Amino acid sequence: MPPVAAAQQDRLNWLIRGVAALPEGERPWCAGAVVAAGRGQDVLVEAAFGWAVRYAAYDAATDRGVELPRERWVPMRAGRDADADTAGRDTAFPNTAFPNAAGRDTVFDLASLTKLFTTIVAMRCAERGEIDLDGRVAAYAPEFTAAAEHGITVRQLLTHTSGLLPELPLYEYDGHEQRLARLRAEPPTTAPGTARRYSDLNFLLLQRVVERAAGRPLDRLVRDDITDPLGMAATRFRPPRAWLPRIAATEDQRRPWAKLDRGMLRGVVHDENAHALGGVAGHAGLFSTAADLTLLCRALLGGGPPVLRPESVDLMLTAPGLGFEVDQPWFMGELAGRGAAGHTGFTGTSLVIDRATSSFLVLLANTVHPRRRPADSAPRAAAGTALARALGQVR
């Protein structure tokens, strides 16, 4: 990491200490977290705190996690390049690796950060002339009869203005074809183009559009268009079993708090619909690391191998944004306000790119381990504010 001025380092220490506290206390925000932040091509912060795996189950009677034996807890790990045998530990943060070995950094279920990858794939399809952003969904996937009837466009999917419901219980249907049949027939509840309502269904339809237009499945498109060109070797749908020791656990998924009874999840997608659809879905299903997401952020900031033309990046990251949320202080904190763009994921993940300061912030946590709780993005916003103030010291 590059040397930084003392004033900036004080602010970065504030960021680090804030994330370090997240796995602590009687009701911690998460079992563990990994944070990576930087400016331009420089990584200023890369740290891990707490535990990737701590609980065997959740006990509804006591409203507490059932802890594994202490020797079976798995620490969060950060970093890409160092040798694990010589990895240092920051004495101020005893659960923190600074950094860890290549191939050992913690892999997270990204949840809705998957939508960013589906968006980039769609933009690549547009650049190749395979889709028109203002073209109708029916031109590429005519079997989606409700979208055809109501004239839903690709851009409306990307801007969440299709009018579709936020989600459908596709996991309740038997068989892949029945699930897709329900999706194909689902009409919008408001006229397309008239109102914004965030919806997973938009990206399930977008998945089918890009797959039909490009003639390849989404997982291959993500690999060909994004992860291989950027060297993101730890990013993929349906991670192999060999990755399991690196993967953060998510939820003890049981009714009534969850939608399915699947037990403690690790290495399989948390989202119930993505699971029902085979683990590859436009809205959820990707697994990745903070180090890999750093490569993506740096590419979108204009460094490293480009994955999109500059004009495509502008469309994605400029209000109202395509796929990306723009200037949302509820999870960006003081990074918002000058055109910052990013997204969050239900499992505890978030990513912010601020082109005004050429900065990025990746915060990955397992907030649903051992079970989901009401959403709270205050820690994400606090991290964004800490980074914004650190960068303000040298602006």
Give a structural overview:
The chain has 395 residues and is of the alpha+beta class. It has two domains: 268 residues, Beta-lactamase, CATH 3.40.710; 103 residues, no CATH class. Helix content is 31%, strand content 17%. Strand 6 and strand 7 form a beta hairpin. Helix 1 packs antiparallel against helix 12. About 6% of the residues have low confidence.
Ordered list of secondary-structure elements with their pairings:
Layout: H1 6-20, E1 32-39, E2 42-53, E3 55-59, E4 64-67, E5 74-75, E6 88-89, E7 97-98, E8 108-109, H2 114-127, H3 145-150, H4 154-158, H5 176-185, H6 200-214, H7 218-230, E9 236-237, E10 252-253, E11 263-264, H8 272-276, E12 286-288, H9 290-300, H10 310-317, E13 325-326, H11 329-332, E14 341-345, E15 349-354, E16 359-365, H12 378-392
Antiparallel strand pairs: 1-2, 1-16, 2-5, 3-4, 6-7, 8-12, 9-12, 10-11, 13-14, 14-15, 15-16
Helix pairs in contact: 1-12, 2-6, 2-7
Task: Output the radius of gyration.
Answer: 20 Å
Series of H and E elements? HEEEEEEEEHHHHHHEEEHEHHEHEEEH
Number of domains: 2
At CATH level 3, the topology of the largest domain is: Beta-lactamase
Number of helices: 12
What is the name of the CATH architecture of the largest domain? 3-Layer(aba) Sandwich
Summarize the biggest pleated sheet. 7 strands, antiparallel
Kindly, what is the distance between the CA atoms of the first and last residues, rounded to a whole number of angstroms? 19 Å
Q: How much helical structure, as a percent, in the residues?
A: 25-40%
Q: In one word, what is the shape?
A: globular
What is the β-strand count?
16
| CATH class category name of the largest domain | Alpha Beta
Average pLDDT, all residues: 92
